[in-house]
């Protein structure tokens, strides 16, 4: 029960990105003591490495089961980063499953979807290449290349190396499988639904993340900038992320 006549705060359910685990959100959750926070492992990640999914529909079903188990019939907000954000958008706007008392989304650095078949084909080929590498190469080699992608351009050498070391235990065939199951090439473009839905959706973005700042501008998204952070804003500045989230929900 909330004290002093306050309305009870909603539960917060967090989804990590590709290669991550539920532990990725702990630095943010540490700043949210007045909320009931739940951080989930996605399929094929962390403690759910053995849980396989083939597509977005199965991933949405998995998510619905985990949320029901964690929060029951309580109202909740869903917060997702990158792949976790794309899954959250699909779950809220595209899937036909029961979503309980979903109050809104906070989406960090997540793509709304591709526009043309040519873009989807190019992305599918790119994801197949990465999947083959994740399945067959040394984690340190493929991860070093993964974090050289333009979206991670703001990271320095020490930050990249720290991420490589952090992600190595989770890296392997499981990541290849998840990358193909939830490829951006398979995701419907959700931009129109984002603009038309009555569900509150707020987009969080690191101030240095030029790619997703541009997406927000092009689609006139409801954007909150996280200071001194790039694509992985909640990792790079958990204090500001938690403060902005609290300001939005309190």
TrEMBL record:
Pathway: Quinol/quinone metabolism; menaquinone biosynthesis; Quinol/quinone metabolism; 1,4-dihydroxy-2-naphthoate biosynthesis; 1,4-dihydroxy-2-naphthoate from chorismate: step 3/7. Keywords: Lyase, Menaquinone biosynthesis. Pfam families: Abhydrolase_1. One of its GO terms (biological process) is menaquinone biosynthetic process. The keyword Lyase applies. Its EC number is 4.2.99.20. Residues 11-238 form the AB hydrolase-1 domain. The keyword Protein transport does not apply. One of its GO terms (molecular function) is 2-succinyl-6-hydroxy-2,4-cyclohexadiene-1-carboxylate synthase activity. Signal peptide: none annotated. It catalyses: 5-enolpyruvoyl-6-hydroxy-2-succinyl-cyclohex-3-ene-1-carboxylate = (1R,6R)-6-hydroxy-2-succinyl-cyclohexa-2,4-diene-1-carboxylate + pyruvate. Gene3D superfamilies: alpha/beta hydrolase. Monomer. Catalyzes a proton abstraction reaction that results in 2,5-elimination of pyruvate from 2-succinyl-5-enolpyruvyl-6-hydroxy-3-cyclohexene-1-carboxylate (SEPHCHC) and the formation of 2-succinyl-6-hydroxy-2,4-cyclohexadiene-1-carboxylate (SHCHC). Belongs to the AB hydrolase superfamily. MenH family. NCBIfam families: menH_SHCHC, PRK11126.1. This is Putative 2-succinyl-6-hydroxy-2,4-cyclohexadiene-1-carboxylate synthase. It comes from Testudinibacter aquarius.
